[in-house]
Design a protein that fits this description.
seven-stranded antiparallel β-sheet, alpha+beta, 7 strands, Chitinase A, domain 3
Length: about 180
């Protein structure tokens, strides 16, 4: 009987006959077209910022169809990286303002599995344009890097990245 009364009480409380509207109901959604226009303008401005960076630093960049810009500083003959290979690299990641976000330590390169590991999609694309011995400056727009929220550590929201990267070696296994 006690369980029966508790069940009826919980059910009655859950009905919410005169409940207060939630915050979602009180704040209408922004107009979808306004959001699209805002995002288009933000992407346009970001592309301009990347172009300005390349010009200010005298980089003769090539552009890919997915928004990546790169300048090979050293171009060594050889096969380019492909999916499922381990790429061993030295790198320094900067923001467009020149602040360093991340870098490999001297003598301690890092490896990642091309097209598989959890690194920026722009880095996967860039590394496949390189062969062992190559070095490059790669400009990655935020939507190919850490997106709207950044990495919640050293890379702020909507930040384009500058990768100074050298591909040391490629291998079919991690070793």
């Amino acid at each position: 009987m006690k369980i029966w009364l508790i069940s009826i009480f919980v059910l009655a409380m859950g009905c919410g006959g005169g409940s207060i509207p939630s915050e979602v109901d009180q704040h209408p959604m922004p107009d979808q077209e306004a959001l699209i226009k805002y995002n288009q303008n933000a992407v346009r401005q970001e592309n301009q910022d990347i172009d300005d960076y390349a010009e200010q630093h005298g980089l003769k960049v090539s552009k890919t169809g997915r928004g990546l810009q790169y300048c090979l500083l050293r171009n060594v003959e050889g096969p380019n990286a492909v999916a499922d290979q381990w790429a061993t690299v030295n790198y320094r990641v900067e923001l467009l303002n020149g602040d360093t976000a991340y870098a490999t330590k001297s003598g301690e390169p890092e490896s990642f599995l091309v097209e598989m590991d959890d690194v920026e999609s722009g880095l996967h694309e860039a590394i496949q344009l390189m062969s062992p011995g190559d070095s490059a400056v790669v400009l990655i727009p935020s939507y190919r890097a850490h997106g709207l929220i950044g990495d919640q550590d050293r890379i702020p929201m909507r930040s384009s990245l500058v990768y100074h990267i050298g591909l040391l070696k490629l291998s079919d296994n991690k070793r």
